[in-house]
Write a structure and sequence with these properties.
Largest sheet of chain B: 7 strands, mixed
Radius of gyration of chain B: 41 Å
Oligomer: heterodimer
Largest interface: A-B, 40 and 30 residues
Strand content of chain B: 25-35%
CATH class of the largest domain in chain B: Alpha Beta
CATH architecture of the largest domain in chain B: 3-Layer(aba) Sandwich
Number of strands of chain B: 29
Strand content of chain A: 15-25%
Number of domains of chain B: 4
CATH topology of the largest domain in chain B: Rossmann fold
CATH superfamily of the largest domain in chain A: von Willebrand factor, type A domain
CATH superfamily of the largest domain in chain B: Class I glutamine amidotransferase (GATase) domain
Number of strands of chain A: 10
CATH topology of the largest domain in chain A: Rossmann fold
Distance between the termini of chain A: 30 Å
CATH class of the largest domain in chain A: Alpha Beta
């Protein structure tokens, strides 16, 4: 169990927070991109036999003398996809942070009676996507987010495997360090093409990302096993830090351009704060 | 187990430590990174330029330099100096007046022999001693005969005019191969310095072997007299070669019971230089005094003598005799007081106080007689007149004295005179205020003390150190001083300053050369004086430390920058 008793208490507080979200008390805290659920008007169409009279738009009839009916959005449960990076680069604190944040987000979603889809990316064996609905499935979700970090990062493969068909819309959280050899944004582009609202959480472990001590070093890639011999000098470290920041900035810029949310967090931050930040941004309310 | 070169061992160990440190530092560490492509740019940058690669290996370079420097230091590197090839020697022995002291010329000769022994085989050596006129007295000798030459000249006496300069301008140094000139002398012998002109510039190097001579017990220097003068003062006179060279007055501690040690330091004279002689002054016993009178001594004299006996100034019992019986009675007495009389015959060694002498075998002469003479010009500071004012005690009648040291004058001549063996008063104290004055016993006390101080001056005429000093039987304790070979001073020609002396060597300015201008075509100084080998291990060790420090600073900078 990755959650301590204190963190479990914090998880309960998140559920209370989720109830506020459901009641709409927190709706004003987010930026609304489209009409929400709850029987909102969609379009007019000609009256057909069998249509309920309460659907007829009498105002239009008064002006146009023609019967048209108002068509409303069908109320559907929201899909919350949690793509959790379990590659080797997420070993340690980053992986634990991703699992906890995913659990927290999932707990909030389940409390909101939304369907949660857990899509592990990486791992020893690609785990099948699991779907969770209802608060009763929260323990199962907590168990499912745990897993050994193995294999390379494959966010796109996880997204494709979990969302092969046309989705009904929803929110997709990508919790990763985005060290994806295929490209950090390819998975995000795919999710966006599925008309999902994408939230990218860049999780960085300061300890693992710190440059090695000065001197000769053989750098081994955690996922590919590739080796690079290098002299760790001030110039090399400066170049490395510059590349790291440029990568994060590039990801942020992509998200901004594509309307996706972006949050850069440190792995040693409390997961509760990270989930709160996500809620505050309205990420759990489509 | 021990090491012949322990320093080398430790330095080699340090070098091994440096290499070990480098190997540890250079050990390639395996570091797992989350995403290797982030380092690609850094690697590309490192592979980019030569400068970058050099900087990357700067620490290696520094450590290699440090190791090399340590290894070199362990090896004891020596920078070979320039050899002093073909350097002949002109050896000048100062056989001047000061060298007459026993042992000094031998010391000079020893120094000269040492200088000869220092030379390489085959060196041409000219040994020169100078007579009074500065004439060269010897021909050149080969190195093998140089010792004999030195000894030959050490046996003869020569004289250098002090302060006037040593004229070596005509010295036939031509033909020698860039000769060195070594001048063996006593520093003290040339109080004003001296000048040397040798072969008109052909002497590229000159050196002095100066002997610092303190008072040598074996020398012929003598203290002529060391005489107590009044309260706590002693007069010291030194005599050398028949000439009085100095008189020094020193403070003398008051004598107490037992023996008193006195140090006399003579300064500033040509000889000896800074000599110190120490001798002891035993407590002088009060002398036995014999009063000589034709009949009864005067009552004032009897009273004064009784007072002096009472205070211990003389040793009792007080005896009296007549001039006719003087020879028999004087044996047991240190001195006599002649009351208006004199010995009937000359008695050498007799010390006496003559009061109103009227004739006989006197050691002085009597002059004119005058009534009520006015006394003037009394040597009031003289020990004999301590507490005595003759000006205020005018006699009714007096007779002048001729001889000795006059101490009080009147119209006819001196009324008080003294020498080392007598004190004479030219009037009768009974017939003057002096007789009834308290100054009378004081005068007698002074006179007795004066004569007692020199009463035993029967030692040799001159007192050499180590002999007894004629100061109240003073015994010599210690003659401080022996030959001290001074630092060998060498350098290029020019003005030198050695201590408080100045020397001019091989100047080309004829105005400064008392010997007159030298040869019109002075030889150039072509000789290379050479240079000694220089040991460099200290510098290499310092270099190693600097390299290690730089490597450490480089590491520190890298560590700070990568944090």
């Amino acid at each position: 169990m990755i959650f301590s008793s204190r963190e479990m208490a914090q998880l309960s507080r998140l559920e209370l927070l989720a109830q506020k979200v459901r009641k709409g008390e927190l709706r004003g805290e987010r930026e609304v991109s489209r009409r929400g659920p709850g029987g909102g008007f969609r379009e007019h169409r000609g009256y057909q036999e069998g249509d309920a009279l309460r659907t007829v738009d009498w105002n239009v009839y008064a002006r146009m003398r023609s019967l048209v009916v108002k068509e409303f959005e069908a109320e559907e449960a929201l899909d919350v996809a949690l793509i959790v990076d379990r590659s080797r680069s997420m070993r340690g604190e980053a992986g634990r942070c991703a699992a906890k944040v995913a659990a927290g987000l999932g707990a909030v979603a389940l409390t909101s009676l939304e369907r949660v889809l857990l899509l592990p990316a990486g791992g020893a064996q690609r785990a099948a996507p699991e779907s969770f609905t209802g608060r009763a499935r929260l323990p199962a979700l907590l168990e499912a987010v745990e897993g050994e970090a193995e294999g390379p990062t494959d966010l796109l493969g996880a997204a494709r495997a979990g969302l092969p068909r046309a989705t009904r819309g929803g929110v997709a959280f990508v919790l990763s360090d985005f060290f994806d050899p295929a490209g950090a944004t390819r998975a995000l582009s795919y999710l966006l093409s599925r008309r999902l609202q994408v939230r990218a959480l860049l999780i960085e472990d300061p300890e693992r990302l710190a440059p090695p001590p000065p001197g000769r070093a053989r750098l081994v890639d955690a996922e590919s096993g590739r080796v690079l011999k290098i002299d760790v000098t001030p110039a090399a470290v400066e170049s490395y830090v510059r590349a790291r920041e440029a990568r994060a900035a590039s990801l942020r810029a992509f998200c901004r351009r594509s309307g996706a949310g972006f949050l850069r967090v440190r792995a040693d931050q409390p997961f509760f704060e990270i989930v709160r930040a996500a809620i505050a941004r309205g990420w759990l309310t489509p | 187990m021990r090491f012949l070169h322990p320093a080398g061992f430790w330095l080699a160990l340090a070098a091994a430590g440096v290499l070990l440190a480098y190997l540890v530092r250079r050990r390639v560490r395996r570091v797992e990174v989350p995403f290797l492509p982030l380092w690609a740019a850094a690697l590309a940058q490192q592979r980019a330029g030569l400068g970058t690669r050099l900087v990357r290996h700067l620490d290696l370079l520094l450590l290699l330099l440090a190791s090399g420097a340590i290894a070199a230091a362990a090896g004891g590197p020596v920078l070979p100096g320039r050899p002093d090839t073909i350097r002949d020697l002109v050896l000048v022995l100062d056989g001047g007046i000061e060298s007459r002291a026993r042992g000094r010329i031998e010391a000079l000769a020893a120094a000269a022999r040492e200088e000869v022994a220092r030379r390489a085989p085959g060196t041409e050596i000219i040994v020169i001693a100078l007579r009074d006129d500065g004439e060269r007295v010897t021909a050149s000798r080969r190195a093998g005969d140089a010792f004999a030459a030195v000894d030959d000249h050490a046996a003869g006496w020569t004289k250098l005019h002090p302060g006037a300069g040593l004229a070596l301008g005509r010295l036939a140094a031509r033909g020698l191969r860039t000769p060195d000139l070594v001048f063996c002398t006593f520093r003290a012998s040339k109080p004003e310095g001296f000048r040397i002109r040798a072969a008109g510039g052909a002497v590229p190097n000159a050196a002095f072997v100066a002997l610092e001579v303190l008072f040598d017990p074996e020398s012929g220097g003598r203290i002529a007299r060391a005489t107590l003068r009044g309260a706590g003062r002693v007069r010291v006179e030194g005599i050398f070669d028949g000439e009085l060279v100095g008189e020094r007055r020193i403070d003398l501690p008051l004598r107490r019971a037992g023996r008193t040690e006195v140090s006399v330091r003579m300064e500033g004279d040509a000889f000896p230089w800074d000599d110190i002689v120490r001798f002891e002054l035993p407590e002088a016993a009060a002398p036995r005094v014999l009063v000589v009178a034709q009949d009864q001594p005067s009552p004032f004299l009897a009273a004064a003598m009784a007072a002096l006996e009472a205070v211990g100034a003389i040793r009792g019992p007080l005896d009296r005799t007549t001039p006719a019986r003087l020879r028999e009675a004087v044996q047991d007495y240190e001195l006599c007081i002649f009351d208006r009389c004199a010995p009937l015959e000359e008695m050498p060694g007799l010390r006496g106080i003559y009061l109103a002498p009227s004739g006989g075998a006197l050691p002085f002469e009597l002059g004119e007689e005058a009534d009520a003479p006015v006394v003037f010009d009394a040597r009031v500071g003289h020990p004999l007149l301590a507490g005595v004012d003759l000006v205020r005690t005018p006699p009714l009648r007096a007779r002048a004295l001729r001889g000795g040291e006059p101490l009080a004058h009147a119209a006819p001549g001196p009324l008080l005179a003294a020498s080392e063996s007598w004190v004479a008063l030219g009037f009768d104290p009974d017939r003057s205020i002096l007789g009834a004055s308290p100054a009378y016993p004081l005068f007698l006390r002074n006179a007795i003390a004066h004569l007692a101080a020199t009463a035993r001056d029967t030692a040799p005429e001159f007192l050499a150190v180590g002999e007894r000093a004629p100061v109240q039987g003073a015994a010599f304790v210690e003659g401080v001083g022996t030959f001290l070979l001074g630092e060998r001073i060498a350098g290029p020609p020019g003005f030198w300053r050695v201590g408080e002396r100045s020397f001019a060597v091989n100047l080309l300015d004829p105005d400064l050369d008392l010997a007159g201008p030298g040869p019109s075509d002075p030889l150039p100084a072509v000789g290379d004086p050479g240079a000694p080998d220089r040991r460099l291990e200290t510098w290499f060790a310092l270099g190693a430390i600097v390299c290690l420090l730089a490597a450490w600073l480089l590491d520190l900078r890298t560590w700070v920058a990568t944090r």
